[in-house]
Design a protein that fits this description.
Length: 69
Protein backbone atom coordinates (compact mmCIF):
# COMPACT_ATOMS: atom_id res chain seq x y z
CA UNK A 1 0.00 0.00 0.00
CA UNK A 2 1.30 3.41 -0.90
CA UNK A 3 0.30 6.72 0.53
CA UNK A 4 1.19 8.61 -2.57
CA UNK A 5 3.61 10.66 -0.57
CA UNK A 6 6.76 11.36 -2.42
CA UNK A 7 9.75 10.30 -0.49
CA UNK A 8 10.77 12.35 2.40
CA UNK A 9 13.01 10.15 4.42
CA UNK A 10 13.55 12.94 6.82
CA UNK A 11 11.83 12.37 10.10
CA UNK A 12 12.02 15.00 12.69
CA UNK A 13 11.35 14.36 16.32
CA UNK A 14 8.06 15.87 17.33
CA UNK A 15 8.37 15.07 20.96
CA UNK A 16 10.42 17.13 23.27
CA UNK A 17 13.43 15.42 24.69
CA UNK A 18 12.70 14.14 28.10
CA UNK A 19 15.15 13.25 30.80
CA UNK A 20 15.60 9.57 31.27
CA UNK A 21 13.72 8.36 34.35
CA UNK A 22 16.71 6.30 35.33
CA UNK A 23 19.68 8.54 34.94
CA UNK A 24 18.20 11.90 33.89
CA UNK A 25 20.09 12.08 30.65
CA UNK A 26 18.27 13.21 27.55
CA UNK A 27 16.25 10.40 26.08
CA UNK A 28 16.72 9.06 22.61
CA UNK A 29 14.07 8.29 20.09
CA UNK A 30 15.10 4.68 19.90
CA UNK A 31 14.60 4.05 23.54
CA UNK A 32 12.10 6.71 24.42
CA UNK A 33 11.47 7.73 27.13
CA UNK A 34 14.78 6.33 28.25
CA UNK A 35 18.23 7.35 27.17
CA UNK A 36 19.21 3.85 26.19
CA UNK A 37 18.10 0.28 25.96
CA UNK A 38 19.96 -0.37 29.11
CA UNK A 39 18.02 2.11 31.17
CA UNK A 40 14.84 0.67 29.80
CA UNK A 41 15.90 -2.73 30.99
CA UNK A 42 16.75 -1.36 34.38
CA UNK A 43 13.31 0.09 34.64
CA UNK A 44 11.72 -3.10 33.42
CA UNK A 45 13.58 -5.30 35.85
CA UNK A 46 12.60 -2.96 38.61
CA UNK A 47 9.03 -3.59 37.70
CA UNK A 48 9.56 -7.30 37.65
CA UNK A 49 11.34 -7.37 40.95
CA UNK A 50 8.34 -5.77 42.53
CA UNK A 51 9.57 -2.38 43.57
CA UNK A 52 6.46 -0.99 42.06
CA UNK A 53 4.09 -2.86 44.24
CA UNK A 54 0.69 -3.34 42.81
CA UNK A 55 -1.99 -4.05 45.36
CA UNK A 56 -3.59 -7.37 44.72
CA UNK A 57 -7.21 -7.89 45.41
CA UNK A 58 -7.57 -11.16 47.23
CA UNK A 59 -11.25 -11.05 47.77
CA UNK A 60 -12.28 -12.19 44.39
CA UNK A 61 -13.81 -15.37 45.73
CA UNK A 62 -16.23 -13.22 47.59
CA UNK A 63 -17.60 -11.54 44.55
CA UNK A 64 -21.17 -12.20 45.58
CA UNK A 65 -21.48 -8.49 46.21
CA UNK A 66 -25.09 -7.98 47.05
CA UNK A 67 -25.40 -8.83 50.67
CA UNK A 68 -27.51 -5.92 51.66
CA UNK A 69 -31.22 -6.14 51.75
ZN1 LIG B 1 19.24 6.58 31.20
Amino acid sequence: MSDGKTGSAKVEPLRKPRPCPECSRPSTRESYPFCSERCRNVDLSRWLSGSYAIPVVEDETKAGGEDER
